[in-house]
UniProtKB/TrEMBL annotation:
Source species: Rhodohalobacter mucosus
GO cellular component, one term: plasma membrane protein complex
Domain ABC3 transporter permease C-terminal: 270-400
Spans traversing the lipid bilayer: 21-44, 266-290, 310-337, 363-390
Topological relation to the membrane, as annotated: Multi-pass membrane protein
Name of the protein in its database record: ABC transporter permease
Keyword Cell membrane: yes
Length: 406
């Protein structure tokens, strides 16, 4: 084996330029694959965290038909009992009840359709991080009568600012149209452009008094100590309380379900595509080397070198070449990704702001996991072995007598 390895090493560097080009191509491919995978990981992880922590939470409780019908009258009559139960559950980190309705918002300039969310100014900041998106003004705990929070994009569309009054019109629990004036107390900006334009926040008790003349809740958002307890807690709530539907984030959000199911395999798919391209490079280089060395290989066979050793020598050349490039590519990728992850990669300069239309940050913090590195190593090894098989078989088909005579 030592002899085979020594001959293979010398053969690799017999043509330094050709071997160098192949090494560079593999290094660049692995670096690109790892970087792209790290960016994908960062985008998915940030999107996941934003949706869970800012709005969706680990599980939600509704009246069973509310999410499909969204009728104001479909509130939960036992919401207080559910909240009390959740507050005494050690698996629950925090819970906040919300009052929800769809309606129209009107300024002196124009009107627009919005989703109105009535939240508890105390419990909501303990449950979600949405209040951190406030960029101007004050949160809903201000002393202003009927305060309302608007997204920056909606405020620009309505041509309003802090202190201005707007009118909300919506259907109450008796299916009658109701209108009320609200004062803009704050303006927020999230990573989702559509949310900034279509969602407004008011105090739950203000909204409930207009909708029903009493406190009502359509939704209870629950953050758990451990996300893995979501199914267990949701099942306990459904068994304990009648007339409600407790669902986990996995059931509530098809987008997050897709990201969760396919995000972990994204790295493998990306690396497979890159390795397929590199496999043809390895195959081409090794075939060229075989054709150039046909006389030499024929001589080796003629003096008694077995076909098994010839096959091993060709395979070793390919594997050693690929391993060298793979190690360098993974080190380069790991170092560059760590550098980018410290300060983030700002994509706004290349049109990254359009990512906000889909709810993604324009500044991405890429990262790689141990599984990504292991998968990369496995794919590289398989690629090297498969790409070297055909050149090695081609070498075995040589007839030593004919080659020597030629």
């Amino acid at each position: 084996m030592k002899l085979i390895l020594s001959i293979s090493w010398r053969n690799i560097w017999r043509h330094p330029a050709r071997s160098g080009v192949l090494l560079g191509a593999i290094i660049a491919g692995i670096w690109a694959g790892m970087t792209l995978s790290a960016l994908t990981n960062g985008m998915i992880d940030q999107r996941f965290a934003n949706m869970i922590q800012e709005d969706l939470t680990h599980l939600q409780v509704h009246q069973p038909q509310f999410l499909t019908e969204r009728e104001p009258a479909m509130y939960m009559p036992n919401a207080d009992s559910i909240l009390k139960y959740l507050q005494n559950d050690t698996r629950v980190e925090s819970a906040a009840a919300r009052t929800l309705v769809d309606g129209m918002i009107q300024s002196s300039l124009t009107t627009s359709g919005v989703s109105v969310r009535g939240v508890d100014p105390v419990r909501e900041p303990e449950t979600t991080t949405f209040h951190e998106n406030l960029i101007y003004g004050n949160y809903l705990d201000s002393d202003v009568r009927n305060p309302i929070l608007l997204g920056k994009r909606l405020a620009e569309k309505l041509n309003v600012q802090i202190g201005n009054r707007i009118v909300l019109t919506f259907q109450d629990v008796n299916s009658e149209l109701s209108s009320a004036a609200f004062t803009i107390s704050g303006i927020f900006r999230t990573n989702s452009g559509p949310q900034d334009e279509r969602v407004v926040f008011v105090r739950s008790d203000d909204l409930s008094s207009i909708l029903a003349g009493q406190q009502i809740y359509h939704e209870i958002a629950v953050m758990l100590q451990n996300e893995e307890m979501s199914n267990e807690v949701a099942s306990d709530l459904n068994n304990r309380f009648d007339g409600i539907s407790a669902e986990t984030w996995y059931e509530l959000s098809p987008e997050l379900r897709y990201l969760n199911d396919f995000g972990n395999t994204m790295t493998v798919y990306i690396m497979i595509v890159i390795m397929l391209a590199l496999a043809f490079g390895i195959l081409n280089t090794m075939l060229m080397a075989i054709f150039e060395r046909m006389r030499e290989l024929g001589m080796l066979m003629a003096v008694g070198m077995s076909k098994t050793r010839i096959f091993s020598m060709i395979m070793t050349e390919s594997v050693v070449l690929t391993f060298l490039a793979a190690a360098a590519g993974m080190v380069l990728g790991y170092v560059s990704i760590n550098m980018m992850s410290e300060n983030g990669l700002d994509l706004s300069a290349v049109g990254g702001d359009s990512l906000a239309e889909f709810g993604y940050d324009s500044v991405i913090y890429p990262f790689v996991t141990g599984a990504d590195i292991v998968n990369t190593a496995i794919i590289v090894i398989l690629t090297a072995l498969l790409a070297a098989v055909y050149p090695a078989i081609k070498a075995l088909s040589l007839n030593p007598g004919e080659v020597v005579r030629e």
